[in-house]
Each structure stands twice: as structure tokens, then as C-alpha cells.
């Protein structure tokens, strides 16, 4: 009995110690008329931000990344909702995150910053663990103090949930301070940034981009959809590849590098990811749910097929990881040569802040 008790205690602590930590990232976009530049910067930087989050670990173990999104200050949102709209609940579906971002459109309205913060704090399923990293980033260009809810109320609720709020003012730094954006960050233990939202993001193409793009083509061939959402989900994956391609080669490459990492999860429709999440899943699929490539297979044949696709994907991911290292070295060398002054844009503001805040809760 004593041995059983000791074993149970050891099992409990070992299970707790390896529990995967979360990074919960919420982005609140001002989508009033003047914010097209902000959205363009976000589209140019979203995969760089996700890549930054994907490098975070906790005691050497990978983390789970959940992203949520709101927009505010848009006339298409009812005034009764304080011009606040939830675009996305916390999700690990990075294709859906991209789809929502690229779907945002601007239209003039009243920008109530504390109101959108409070909505996100009340409506989203925030982690209760103090060891998880919980971040809100809000970007806009009008007074932070507008609307029926005060900044202090938003900050008090954030403190209750251990959520850090960082603010990104689209305009001159002193103007943002005078309009309450710095005090909004200070009271919620976040960071204050100011950016020029109308400046195009500086991007550096590398000799490794074309190789990464080719590896993505091979990577896509290892995604084998199952179930009723297979066709729609595969189409969404390819659509978001196309959205990244439409911005620039750099953004396209950064998306593909994200797809090579564990943070890019598609277990709800892809047999390889589903098998990694639950090795019994493929055995439970009905004949109707199976992809065309697996119809008529028995249990052993299903296992063998998925293992083959898993092995193919692993080889591709390793090659992409190697290329990413070389690409990063090239970019750092090019940045070192640049004589122009470095300024924050939406992506560098979020990535820099997220990395620094992660250290405060013990992330590597």
C-alpha cells in the first residue's frame, strides 16, 4: 500500500511537471476608416509573430499557442455592442486565424478601447493557471479613454485574470501618451508602443526562400483529410497559402515555416495530426469518414499508411528547420549591414513584447 501511495504521488507530480503550458494571445484591431495600414502591417507580420511564439518553450517542452481576435470601432458593428465584435474565440487553428485576419475590413466608427478589452476578458475562456502566459495587444489611433467603460475597470479585470495588456498607438509617441495609451498599458503591466501604421513593413528576401516554398509543396502532400470537414479544411489551408503569397515572398515563406512546426495543428481533419494527438483515432473512423486513399484498409493497413505519411512529413519538417536556421542567419547579416534606423511596426512590437513577457512566467 505504501509503495502504491508513493507511486501515485510521483505520477501526479511528474504529470503536472510535463503539462504543456499555454500562450494565450488576443489581438484587438481598430478597424475604423484610417486603419488600413495597420491591417496591412498585421497581414505582413502575422506569421512572424506566430513563429516567435512557436520558439517559446517551458522547461524545454513545447507550448500550446491559442489565438483570439476582436475588431472594434467599425460602423458595421451595432452601437449597442459598443462597436465591439469578436472575430475568433481562442483557437489553435492557425489557418482560421489567418482567414479571420485577411477578412477584416475598415469602416469608420467610434473606438472604445476599454470596452473591447473588457469584452475579451469576459467572453474568452482564459486559463486559470498562473504559469500560462496571457496577453492582450490592442492597436488603434484615437483616444484610449473613449466609451462607457473606464480604463481602470478594464485594468482591474485584467489583474483578476492575470492578463497583461499592451497597447500599440498608431501615431506619434507623445500623442499616444497624451491620449491615454501608455497609462492603459502601465496599469495592466503591459508595454506601450507607437508605430507608423502607414509605413510598409521592411522585408528581406533570402536565397533560401524558394527552397522553403518547394518544401511546403511537399508538406501539403502529406495532409490527408478525413471526415465531413476534410474538403473545406484543405481548401482553407491552400487559401491561406494563397493569401500569404499575395502579400510577399517573405510572408509566404514565414507562413510555410510555421506550418513545419508543432504549433500548426490540424488534428480535426488531417489523419497524421489526428494520429499524433490520439493513436486510436484512425482506427475509429468509419469507412465513410476515411479519406479516399485509405478506403478499404484494415487496421494494420491504416496504421502503416499513416506511419508512412508521418515519416514523410518528419523528413520535410527537418529540412525546413535546417533551411530556417540558414535563412535566419542571412537575415541577421543583412540587418547588420543596414544603416537605416530601426523602427517598430505592428509585428515587431508584438513579438518583442511577447518574448519579454514570456520570461516573467518562466518560459525559455
Description:
The N terminus is likely disordered. The two termini are 39 Å apart. It is built from 14 helices and eight strands. The longest helix has 39 residues. Strand 6, helix 5 and strand 7 form a beta-alpha-beta unit. Helix 2 packs parallel to helix 10, helix 2 packs parallel to helix 14 and helix 9 packs antiparallel against helix 10. The protein has 364 residues and is α/β, with parallel strands linked by helices. It folds into two domains: 195 residues, 3-Layer(aba) Sandwich (Rossmann fold), CATH 3.40.50.410; 129 residues, no CATH class. Strands 5-4-1-6-7-8 form a six-stranded mixed β-sheet, with helices on both faces.
Fold blueprint:
Elements: H1 2-17, E1 22-30, H2 36-54, E2 57-58, E3 61-62, E4 64-72, E5 84-91, H3 94-102, H4 113-123, E6 133-140, H5 151-160, E7 164-170, H6 173-178, H7 181-186, E8 192-195, H8 209-220, H9 230-247, H10 249-259, H11 271-277, H12 281-284, H13 299-337, H14 346-360
Parallel strand pairs: 1-4, 1-6, 6-7, 7-8
Antiparallel strand pairs: 2-3, 4-5
Helix pairs in contact: 2-10, 2-14, 3-9, 4-5, 8-10, 8-13, 9-10
Amino acid at each position: 500500500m505504501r509503495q502504491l501511495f508513493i507511486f501515485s504521488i510521483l505520477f501526479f507530480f511528474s504529470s503536472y511537471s510535463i503539462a504543456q503550458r499555454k500562450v494565450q494571445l488576443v489581438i484587438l484591431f481598430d478597424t475604423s476608416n484610417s486603419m488600413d495600414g495597420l491591417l496591412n502591417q498585421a497581414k505582413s507580420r502575422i506569421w512572424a509573430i506566430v513563429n516567435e511564439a512557436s520558439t517559446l518553450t517551458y522547461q524545454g517542452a513545447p507550448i500550446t499557442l491559442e489565438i483570439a481576435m476582436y475588431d472594434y470601432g467599425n460602423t458595421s458593428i451595432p452601437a449597442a455592442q459598443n462597436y465591439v465584435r469578436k472575430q475568433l474565440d481562442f483557437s489553435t487553428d492557425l489557418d482560421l486565424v489567418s482567414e479571420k485576419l485577411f477578412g477584416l475590413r475598415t469602416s469608420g466608427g467610434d473606438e472604445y478601447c476599454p470596452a473591447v478589452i473588457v469584452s475579451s476578458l469576459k467572453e474568452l475562456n482564459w486559463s486559470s493557471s498562473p504559469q500560462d502566459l496571457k496577453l492582450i495587444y490592442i492597436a488603434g489611433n484615437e483616444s484610449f479613454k473613449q466609451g462607457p467603460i473606464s480604463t481602470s475597470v478594464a485594468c482591474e479585470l485584467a489583474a483578476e485574470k492575470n492578463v497583461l495588456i499592451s497597447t500599440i498607438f498608431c501615431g506619434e509617441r507623445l500623442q499616444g501618451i497624451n491620449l491615454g495609451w501608455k497609462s492603459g498599458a502601465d496599469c495592466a503591466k503591459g508595454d506601450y508602443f507607437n508605430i507608423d501604421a502607414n509605413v510598409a513593413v521592411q522585408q528581406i528576401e533570402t536565397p533560401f526562400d524558394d527552397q522553403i516554398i518547394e518544401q511546403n509543396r511537399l508538406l501539403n502532400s502529406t495532409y490527408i483529410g478525413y471526415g465531413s470537414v476534410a474538403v473545406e479544411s484543405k481548401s482553407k489551408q491552400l487559401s491561406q497559402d494563397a493569401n500569404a503569397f499575395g502579400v510577399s515572398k517573405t510572408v509566404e515563406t514565414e507562413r510555410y515555416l510555421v506550418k513545419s512546426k508543432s504549433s500548426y495543428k490540424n488534428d480535426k481533419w488531417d489523419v497524421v495530426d489526428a494520429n499524433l494527438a490520439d493513436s486510436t483515432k484512425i482506427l475509429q473512423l468509419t469507412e465513410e469518414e476515411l479519406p479516399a486513399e485509405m478506403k478499404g484498409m484494415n487496421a494494420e493497413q491504416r496504421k502503416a499508411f499513416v506511419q508512412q505519411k508521418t515519416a514523410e512529413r518528419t523528413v520535410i519538417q527537418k529540412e525546413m528547420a535546417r533551411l530556417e536556421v540558414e535563412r535566419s542567419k542571412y537575415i541577421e547579416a543583412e540587418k547588420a549591414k543596414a544603416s537605416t534606423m530601426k523602427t517598430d511596426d505592428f509585428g515587431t512590437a508584438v513579438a518583442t513584447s511577447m518574448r519579454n513577457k514570456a520570461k516573467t512566467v518562466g518560459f525559455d
